[in-house]
Amino acid sequence: MKTFKYLSIVLFSAVVFSCTNEEIHYEGDPYLSFITTSSQQLVDQGSGSKVVEVDYGTIAKVESAQVSLVVDPTSQLKEGIDFQFMGPSNPSGNFDGKIAIKLLESGASPEGKNAVFRLSSPTVKNGIFNQVHTMTVALKCPVSYFLAGNFKATMPFFTGSPTVDVEITEGPEPNTLLLKDYYANGYDIKLKYNPSTGAITIDTQQTGYMHPTYGMISIRQVFTTASTINFCTRKMVINYQPFVSAGNFAAVVDNIVGT
User: Fold this and answer.
1) Does domain 32-139 have CATH number 2.60.40.1740?
2) What is the mean pLDDT of residues 7-27?
3) What mean pLDDT, rounded, does the chain reach?
4) Are 200 and 236 in contact (CB under 8 A)?
5) Which PROSITE patterns match (predicted)?
6) Predicted local confidence at residue 23, as pLDDT
7) Which three-class secondary structure state does DSSP give residue 33?
8) How many helices (H) and strands (E) does the chain have?
9) Nearest to 151 by CA among 164, 170, 138, 141
């Protein structure tokens, strides 16, 4: 029997907001930050390299500025050996921009290694939040290799975080996987994956598990932390938030590992 680990629910409350038609203008420094703090990229075997982009943003439009990436000392991957910067970026009157990086196949490994970046600009100050971006770079293996494994999930939503066997199969649509009977028998959780990056998307869906007071528990994507899959190592990390009609449970992270 599965027992709840998170007993308290943040209940929704009705709040009345007063609105005005006045537009809010920000006239301070634009400040640089990454859009996300982590990502994953998969490099095809035999490709030689892959060009990817890292997104950044500012809190005010920047007409013209040079924004570059610098390598953090903690980075496992090294510039010029494992990857190459493709040059600085210019926001050009926008709130955001992209910086291109060429990932070299020689720097990718089945288990994946991290490239750690910071933002730098001679004219735009760095913000407080999202100042480090960690990109995991791994070789890409076929999904058939991944599915040949036997998997265990940690199921952190339930008391004691029991490690349980979980069956993973291909889904009905391209680039989808099913966690069979994940929370309850007869209810599969569908995951969408990006074959180029290993990024996982979790659509809002019912789990089949019934809360004794609030009824059906559903889950939805947590966007602040990436959900990823590595086909070579048969490892998957999924971040999601369980919720009921009355409110949300705490977000959880499930590490699913295959052998």
Assistant:
1) yes
2) 46
3) 89
4) yes
5) PROKAR_LIPOPROTEIN
6) 52
7) strand
8) 1, 20
9) 164
